[in-house]
Specification:
about 260 residues, alpha+beta, Glutaredoxin, two-stranded antiparallel ribbon, 9 helices, about 50% helix, globular
Protein backbone atom coordinates (compact mmCIF):
# COMPACT_ATOMS: atom_id res chain seq x y z
CA UNK A 1 0.00 0.00 0.00
CA UNK A 2 1.12 3.56 -0.62
CA UNK A 3 0.20 6.85 1.01
CA UNK A 4 -1.38 9.67 -0.94
CA UNK A 5 2.08 11.12 -1.49
CA UNK A 6 3.20 7.89 -3.13
CA UNK A 7 5.38 6.62 -0.28
CA UNK A 8 5.08 3.05 0.95
CA UNK A 9 3.05 2.58 4.16
CA UNK A 10 5.91 0.59 5.63
CA UNK A 11 9.15 1.48 7.43
CA UNK A 12 11.66 -0.22 5.15
CA UNK A 13 15.05 -1.54 6.12
CA UNK A 14 16.73 1.43 4.47
CA UNK A 15 14.93 3.69 6.96
CA UNK A 16 15.75 1.95 10.23
CA UNK A 17 18.46 -0.60 9.56
CA UNK A 18 21.91 -1.16 11.01
CA UNK A 19 24.70 -2.51 8.80
CA UNK A 20 23.20 -5.36 6.77
CA UNK A 21 23.63 -8.91 7.95
CA UNK A 22 24.55 -10.58 4.67
CA UNK A 23 23.62 -14.01 6.00
CA UNK A 24 19.98 -12.88 5.72
CA UNK A 25 20.25 -10.51 2.77
CA UNK A 26 18.52 -11.20 -0.51
CA UNK A 27 20.74 -10.91 -3.55
CA UNK A 28 18.34 -8.85 -5.60
CA UNK A 29 20.70 -8.77 -8.54
CA UNK A 30 20.63 -12.52 -8.98
CA UNK A 31 16.90 -12.64 -8.23
CA UNK A 32 15.75 -10.06 -10.77
CA UNK A 33 13.59 -12.42 -12.77
CA UNK A 34 12.01 -13.87 -9.63
CA UNK A 35 11.15 -10.43 -8.34
CA UNK A 36 9.72 -9.33 -11.68
CA UNK A 37 7.49 -12.39 -11.80
CA UNK A 38 6.42 -11.87 -8.20
CA UNK A 39 5.63 -8.22 -8.92
CA UNK A 40 3.42 -9.22 -11.84
CA UNK A 41 1.59 -11.76 -9.69
CA UNK A 42 1.10 -9.26 -6.88
CA UNK A 43 -0.22 -6.67 -9.32
CA UNK A 44 -2.80 -9.13 -10.59
CA UNK A 45 -3.80 -10.26 -7.10
CA UNK A 46 -3.95 -6.82 -5.51
CA UNK A 47 -5.05 -4.66 -8.41
CA UNK A 48 -8.00 -3.09 -6.53
CA UNK A 49 -5.58 -1.93 -3.83
CA UNK A 50 -3.12 -0.35 -6.25
CA UNK A 51 0.17 -1.63 -7.70
CA UNK A 52 2.62 -3.45 -5.43
CA UNK A 53 5.00 -1.36 -3.33
CA UNK A 54 8.77 -1.78 -3.23
CA UNK A 55 8.42 -3.70 0.03
CA UNK A 56 5.71 -5.92 -1.51
CA UNK A 57 7.99 -6.83 -4.41
CA UNK A 58 11.02 -7.54 -2.26
CA UNK A 59 9.02 -9.62 0.23
CA UNK A 60 7.42 -11.61 -2.58
CA UNK A 61 10.89 -12.86 -3.55
CA UNK A 62 11.09 -14.65 -0.17
CA UNK A 63 8.93 -17.73 0.40
CA UNK A 64 6.36 -17.66 3.18
CA UNK A 65 7.44 -19.39 6.38
CA UNK A 66 5.67 -22.71 6.92
CA UNK A 67 4.89 -22.15 10.58
CA UNK A 68 5.39 -19.53 13.29
CA UNK A 69 5.36 -20.56 16.94
CA UNK A 70 2.88 -18.97 19.34
CA UNK A 71 3.06 -18.53 23.11
CA UNK A 72 0.41 -18.25 25.79
CA UNK A 73 1.02 -14.47 25.80
CA UNK A 74 -0.42 -14.36 22.26
CA UNK A 75 -3.89 -15.32 23.47
CA UNK A 76 -6.28 -12.45 24.25
CA UNK A 77 -9.01 -14.66 25.70
CA UNK A 78 -9.55 -18.05 27.28
CA UNK A 79 -10.75 -19.43 23.95
CA UNK A 80 -8.43 -21.22 21.53
CA UNK A 81 -8.69 -19.39 18.20
CA UNK A 82 -8.57 -21.10 14.84
CA UNK A 83 -6.76 -18.22 13.11
CA UNK A 84 -3.81 -16.02 14.09
CA UNK A 85 -2.27 -12.76 12.91
CA UNK A 86 1.43 -12.28 13.68
CA UNK A 87 2.72 -8.69 13.50
CA UNK A 88 6.38 -7.69 13.15
CA UNK A 89 6.43 -4.14 14.39
CA UNK A 90 8.56 -1.33 15.82
CA UNK A 91 7.43 1.29 18.34
CA UNK A 92 9.54 3.86 16.49
CA UNK A 93 7.96 3.18 13.09
CA UNK A 94 5.43 5.78 11.90
CA UNK A 95 3.39 3.29 9.92
CA UNK A 96 3.33 0.79 12.77
CA UNK A 97 1.85 3.62 14.83
CA UNK A 98 -0.71 4.36 12.11
CA UNK A 99 -1.83 0.73 12.16
CA UNK A 100 -1.91 0.61 15.97
CA UNK A 101 -4.01 3.75 16.29
CA UNK A 102 -6.40 3.43 13.33
CA UNK A 103 -6.80 -0.22 12.27
CA UNK A 104 -5.89 -2.33 15.28
CA UNK A 105 -8.67 -1.10 17.63
CA UNK A 106 -11.35 -2.32 15.23
CA UNK A 107 -9.61 -5.67 14.65
CA UNK A 108 -9.07 -6.11 18.35
CA UNK A 109 -12.74 -5.54 19.15
CA UNK A 110 -14.03 -7.77 16.36
CA UNK A 111 -11.50 -10.60 16.38
CA UNK A 112 -8.89 -10.59 19.15
CA UNK A 113 -10.83 -9.85 22.34
CA UNK A 114 -13.54 -12.32 21.35
CA UNK A 115 -10.99 -15.09 20.81
CA UNK A 116 -11.83 -15.55 17.14
CA UNK A 117 -8.27 -14.66 16.15
CA UNK A 118 -5.01 -14.74 18.13
CA UNK A 119 -2.80 -11.67 17.80
CA UNK A 120 0.94 -12.12 18.20
CA UNK A 121 3.19 -9.07 18.44
CA UNK A 122 6.82 -9.60 17.44
CA UNK A 123 9.36 -6.87 18.13
CA UNK A 124 11.55 -5.68 15.28
CA UNK A 125 13.34 -2.40 16.01
CA UNK A 126 15.60 -1.97 12.99
CA UNK A 127 18.45 -0.05 14.54
CA UNK A 128 20.38 -1.56 17.47
CA UNK A 129 21.70 1.94 18.15
CA UNK A 130 18.16 3.19 18.81
CA UNK A 131 18.17 2.58 22.55
CA UNK A 132 14.68 4.01 23.03
CA UNK A 133 13.13 1.60 20.52
CA UNK A 134 14.95 -1.33 22.13
CA UNK A 135 13.90 -0.19 25.62
CA UNK A 136 10.28 0.21 24.50
CA UNK A 137 10.23 -3.32 23.10
CA UNK A 138 11.88 -4.68 26.24
CA UNK A 139 9.28 -3.10 28.51
CA UNK A 140 6.44 -4.31 26.27
CA UNK A 141 7.78 -7.88 26.33
CA UNK A 142 7.87 -7.88 30.12
CA UNK A 143 4.43 -6.29 30.31
CA UNK A 144 3.14 -9.17 28.17
CA UNK A 145 4.66 -11.63 30.65
CA UNK A 146 2.60 -9.95 33.39
CA UNK A 147 -0.62 -9.70 31.36
CA UNK A 148 -0.31 -5.95 30.70
CA UNK A 149 0.77 -5.97 27.05
CA UNK A 150 -2.15 -4.04 25.58
CA UNK A 151 -1.85 -1.20 28.07
CA UNK A 152 1.84 -0.76 27.37
CA UNK A 153 1.36 -1.22 23.62
CA UNK A 154 -1.29 1.50 23.49
CA UNK A 155 0.68 3.81 25.80
CA UNK A 156 3.84 3.63 23.68
CA UNK A 157 2.17 4.01 20.29
CA UNK A 158 0.11 6.94 21.54
CA UNK A 159 3.40 8.65 22.42
CA UNK A 160 5.73 7.36 19.70
CA UNK A 161 6.78 10.91 18.76
CA UNK A 162 8.34 11.16 22.23
CA UNK A 163 9.24 7.53 22.75
CA UNK A 164 12.05 8.18 25.20
CA UNK A 165 9.74 10.05 27.57
CA UNK A 166 7.01 7.41 27.21
CA UNK A 167 9.16 4.53 28.44
CA UNK A 168 8.96 5.60 32.08
CA UNK A 169 5.16 5.44 32.09
CA UNK A 170 5.22 2.10 30.29
CA UNK A 171 7.64 0.73 32.87
CA UNK A 172 5.31 1.83 35.67
CA UNK A 173 2.47 -0.11 34.04
CA UNK A 174 4.62 -3.25 33.87
CA UNK A 175 5.83 -2.79 37.46
CA UNK A 176 2.26 -2.55 38.72
CA UNK A 177 1.93 -6.28 37.98
CA UNK A 178 5.52 -7.50 37.83
CA UNK A 179 6.73 -5.76 40.96
CA UNK A 180 10.40 -6.13 41.81
CA UNK A 181 10.90 -8.75 39.09
CA UNK A 182 10.29 -6.13 36.40
CA UNK A 183 13.73 -4.49 36.46
CA UNK A 184 15.55 -7.78 35.88
CA UNK A 185 13.05 -8.81 33.22
CA UNK A 186 13.65 -5.56 31.32
CA UNK A 187 17.43 -5.92 31.66
CA UNK A 188 17.26 -9.43 30.15
CA UNK A 189 14.67 -8.60 27.47
CA UNK A 190 16.94 -7.20 24.68
CA UNK A 191 18.15 -10.72 23.92
CA UNK A 192 14.54 -11.77 23.41
CA UNK A 193 13.89 -8.73 21.21
CA UNK A 194 16.86 -9.66 19.02
CA UNK A 195 15.48 -13.18 18.71
CA UNK A 196 12.22 -11.73 17.38
CA UNK A 197 14.13 -9.57 14.89
CA UNK A 198 16.31 -12.48 13.78
CA UNK A 199 13.20 -14.61 13.24
CA UNK A 200 11.63 -11.80 11.22
CA UNK A 201 14.65 -11.53 8.92
CA UNK A 202 14.60 -15.31 8.47
CA UNK A 203 10.95 -15.03 7.40
CA UNK A 204 11.76 -12.33 4.84
CA UNK A 205 10.51 -9.30 6.76
CA UNK A 206 12.03 -6.31 4.97
CA UNK A 207 9.94 -3.57 6.56
CA UNK A 208 7.56 -2.86 9.41
CA UNK A 209 4.76 -3.45 9.92
CA UNK A 210 4.67 -6.86 8.25
CA UNK A 211 2.01 -9.43 9.13
CA UNK A 212 1.62 -13.17 8.67
CA UNK A 213 -1.86 -14.67 8.87
CA UNK A 214 -2.75 -18.33 9.03
CA UNK A 215 -4.46 -21.29 10.66
CA UNK A 216 -3.64 -22.20 14.27
CA UNK A 217 -2.38 -25.76 14.70
CA UNK A 218 -0.85 -27.03 17.94
CA UNK A 219 0.24 -23.60 19.18
CA UNK A 220 1.75 -22.67 15.84
CA UNK A 221 0.50 -20.64 12.90
CA UNK A 222 0.37 -22.47 9.59
CA UNK A 223 1.06 -19.40 7.46
CA UNK A 224 -1.26 -18.76 4.52
CA UNK A 225 -0.77 -15.04 3.83
CA UNK A 226 1.71 -12.16 4.18
CA UNK A 227 0.47 -8.56 4.52
CA UNK A 228 3.04 -5.81 4.03
CA UNK A 229 2.46 -2.32 5.42
CA UNK A 230 -0.35 -0.45 7.18
CA UNK A 231 -3.10 -1.67 4.88
CA UNK A 232 -6.71 -0.44 5.30
CA UNK A 233 -8.93 -2.13 7.87
CA UNK A 234 -11.09 -3.70 5.16
CA UNK A 235 -8.04 -5.47 3.76
CA UNK A 236 -7.33 -7.18 7.09
CA UNK A 237 -11.01 -7.99 7.57
CA UNK A 238 -11.11 -9.70 4.18
CA UNK A 239 -8.00 -11.78 4.89
CA UNK A 240 -9.11 -12.81 8.39
CA UNK A 241 -12.68 -13.64 7.35
CA UNK A 242 -11.39 -15.80 4.51
CA UNK A 243 -9.08 -17.66 6.91
CA UNK A 244 -11.85 -18.15 9.48
CA UNK A 245 -14.02 -19.64 6.74
CA UNK A 246 -11.23 -21.98 5.62
CA UNK A 247 -10.50 -23.02 9.22
CA UNK A 248 -14.19 -23.78 9.81
CA UNK A 249 -14.40 -25.82 6.62
CA UNK A 250 -11.27 -27.79 7.49
CA UNK A 251 -12.60 -28.40 11.00
CA UNK A 252 -15.90 -29.76 9.68
CA UNK A 253 -14.08 -32.01 7.23
CA UNK A 254 -12.21 -33.74 10.04
CA UNK A 255 -15.28 -34.33 12.23
Amino acid sequence: MSNDDGTDAVCARSDHMPRPDWRHAVDLGSSLLTIAAAATLLWRLTGPHGPPTNADVASAAVALPDRIALTTADWSSTQTPKVALVAYSDFRCKFCGDFARTTLPSLRKTYFDSGRVAFAFRHMPWDDADTDAMSASSVALCAADYGRFWEVHDWLFARSDELGRAIGGATSIAESSGGQKTAQCIADAPARVRQHASEGRRFGVLGTPTFFAGIVRDRTVEVRSRIVGAQPTDYFVSVLNDLIYVADQESRATQ
